[in-house]
Amino acid sequence: MLRPLLKKQLQTERRPSWKLTQRVVEMAASASGEATRIMLAVNESTIKGYPHASISCRGAFEWILKKIIRSNTCDFKLLFIHVQVPDEDGFDDMDSKFASPDDFKKMKHRDKIRGLHLLEYFVNQCHEIGVACEAWVKKGDAKEIICLEAKRVQPDFLVLGSRGLGPFQKVFVGTVSEFCVKHADCPVISIKRNADQIPQDPVDD
To answer: Which is an annotated Pfam family here (predicted)?
Structure first.
């Protein structure tokens, strides 16, 4: 009963209020008595490319730290997923998980996975402030893979950065966050970019 209730509450607002967010976190924590597991989908910048994170996912990460975790670093675990578009890089091992900076140093095929450097940024940030985390790469269609991974991992909730595109722009680009809000098997929080962060072309991120 808890998951449908949380999902329903989060979907009542396009940009979650502070009170709503706190209520969701408190309900998730009290239900399990364990660390609240937050899944965050991250992607590369369309402006700078790898290994730079997009404006929206970086903003969503900062929002989690500021609004949810704050100083309670021991009460949360962040789960980072990056979905890489299938290509011909010849690297098929997408099951490795990374929980500390040292894990990246041990990766023999480090330079063959473009998304690895992207994940390393977020894992390093978590390591510096003492937040437990895991990160992994998958290949495929981002919106479908994120939903499948959310179903497999069962986080307390999923956080996604959003470009906040208008209806006309969505027709041509489509949005991962909108799809996941409708289809993910867990509560979803979609965080829009701040107005002062939007590039000249809002489709860029």
So the answer is: Usp
